[in-house]
Amino acid sequence: MPQTKSHYQSTKDILKNHRLKKVVQMIKNKKGNITEILNSVGFNSLSSFSKSFKSIFDISPSKDRKLD
């Protein structure tokens, strides 16, 4: 799992970080298709998830996936 950026995080960023970690965990555990997973944790689209992922982990989801 990617590491979060080390800096002060607002409450909003902490919640976003938690949601992102949940998505990563669910994807790795194959808990449904990607759209179902994203919707279940509150992301309305793949693009909003990707943007949030990159802002928290400083890497795109596709690049992170290639590292695994």
TrEMBL record:
SUPFAM superfamilies: Homeodomain-like. Gene3D superfamilies: Homeodomain-like (1.10.10.60). Keywords: DNA-binding, Transcription, Transcription regulation. Residues 10-67 form the HTH araC/xylS-type domain. Transmembrane segments: none annotated. GO terms for molecular function: DNA-binding transcription factor activity; sequence-specific DNA binding. It comes from the Bacteria. The keyword Nucleotide-binding does not apply. The keyword DNA-binding applies. InterPro entries: Homeodomain-like_sf, HTH_AraC, HTH_AraC-typ_CS, Tscrpt_reg_AraC-type_HTH. Pfam families: HTH_18 (PF12833). PANTHER family: ARAC-FAMILY TRANSCRIPTIONAL REGULATOR, HTH-TYPE TRANSCRIPTIONAL REGULATOR EXSA. This is Helix-turn-helix domain-containing protein. It comes from Labilibaculum euxinus.
